[in-house]
Amino acid sequence: MYDRAELRATSAAPADDLAYLPVAKTRDVKPGQLKGVRARGGYEFVIANVDERYYAFDAYCPHNNWPLKWGAIDRGTLVCGLHLWRFDLETGRVLDPPMADCLGAYPVKIENDTILVGVRPK
Q: Is the pLDDT of residue 81 over 60?
């Protein structure tokens, strides 16, 4: 298992330094849905589908480690189901409450209906 700080650093890594791991098929993540997934190497993510555009984030809220797969997508944000923290879908930046921890966001590619998430290889 990788710690959150190590995973979060991936979002700032150059795209050519990333390894893309398969996490799900596009048909398994319906529009408007959040899905918790695991990838080889102990990685865990939540995948969001917004109008056939896919986003990948840390699987757990930085506030209380609540599984974000139990959250919701609302007006361009990912909302934690526990205390209703809101994160920007594009960047993982926390929007509400202010001054809280951000969420690790990861690049996503689609190849042959497979969702791939970019991580920095060890």
A: yes
